[in-house]
Amino acid sequence: MIKSLATDSSTLIILSKLNYLDKALEFFEEIEVPLGVLREIELKDDEVKRKIRELLDSKRLA
Fold first, then answer.
1. What pLDDT sits at residue 14?
2. How many CB atoms lie within 10 A of CB 55?
3. Residue 25 near residue 31, CB atoms below 8 Å
């Protein structure tokens, strides 16, 4: 298992929209979301933003 991954907004958005984000979390101990990426995702109030926020709050994303 790969320990950690830093990702960009496009990857998170696509995985979330395809409902693969939870599956991707099975492959890494931690997925890091840089602050700039989080700010970009939070510009749009949609399901992707809510899913990312939920995963951050539950500590599944860092």
1. 93
2. 19
3. yes
